[in-house]
Structures are given as structure tokens and as C-alpha cells.
Amino acid sequence: MKLLFLLILLAAVFGTGYYMGKGGDIAALLNAGILKKDTPAGVSNEVIERKTSQTDQVTESAAIAANIVGTWKSTDDAKFSRTFLADGTVIDKYEGNEDATTEGMWKTFMGTDAENAPAPLDEGVVYLKITMPEEVLFLSIPKLTADALEMMYLSGGETLKFTRVR
């Protein structure tokens, strides 16, 4: 039964990836060893559920990493965009101001891995760490769907909302 569920989930995931033009991103993550062939890469239009077992947590972290890859435009400031690349690079851009473009690194991690976060972390929750030249950001991800992303700063509770550009 579990095998049948896994096969159906994999078919849905890879079908969604192909449909959304993200098949190459998933293939790159598989080739880089970030995802395993039996790891679900995400669910297209559902918020990823919180998991409790260690295996599910690792899978959830990998699923978020796979699904966050792409360019996201802020819903609060249409000139601001954040691009997550599969190689761990993140690029913040502000339209009309090339000097405001900043490049750094990103990674997801579980609440059980402290990563020097500025606030207590909840076990079983996936977090995002963005390391820029001048600052390190720690965020939770309360929402991630095929076309919407919400990130909440751990240090202040402010929520950033984005829509997928590509």
C-alpha cells in the first residue's frame, strides 16, 4: 500500500514539475544528490504539511528546497523580487536600482538544527536561512504553494508575501 502511494505521489510530483516547466529543476536536484528518487519534491497547490518523524522532516525540508527554487515577486512591493537558485544562491533585486541587487546563499533546515537562530525554534518545522554579505536572515515558511510563498522573520514576526514569477 505504501509503495502504491509513493508511486502515485512520485507520478503527481514529476507530472506537476513537467507541467510547470520545473522538470529541469527537479532533475538538477536529483543529479546534485539534494533529492533522492524516492523523495517527494512537493505538492503543487497545497501547503506542505508539518511532519513529526525525522524521515518526514528531512523529506519536508527537501520538498521545500525543491519548491522554493524560482523567482518570486513581492506582493507588497512590486519592484522587489527574490530568486532562489537550485545551487543555493539567492538574489534579491529591486527594479530600477541596480545597486540594490544583493547575492547570497540560502538553505533550509529543521528546527532541531539550531543554526544560530535569533529565536527559539520549533521541532518539526522547516526554516530558511539566507546569508547575505551584510546580514543573515532567519525565516519560517508558513506558506509555500506552486504560486505563493510566505516567509516570516524569526526576529520580528514580519511576514513577506510573494507570488511566483517563473
Defining traits:
8 strands; eight-stranded antiparallel beta barrel; 31% strand; disordered N terminus; Lipocalin; 3 helices; alpha+beta; 166 residues
Note the topology:
Elements: H1 2-19, H2 23-31, H3 54-68, E1 70-74, E2 80-84, E3 89-94, E4 102-110, E5 126-131, E6 136-144, E7 148-153, E8 159-164
Antiparallel strand pairs: 1-2, 1-8, 2-3, 3-4, 4-5, 5-6, 6-7, 7-8
Please, could you describe this protein's structure?
The protein has 166 residues and is an alpha+beta fold. It has helices at 2-19, 23-31, 54-68; strands at residues 70-74, 80-84, 89-94, 102-110, 126-131, 136-144, 148-153, 159-164. It has one domain (48-164): Lipocalin, CATH 2.40.128.280. Strands 1-2-3-4-5-6-7-8 form an 8-stranded antiparallel β-barrel. Helix 1 crosses helix 2 (23-31). 21% of the residues are buried. Residues 2-7 and 12-55 have low confidence and may be disordered.
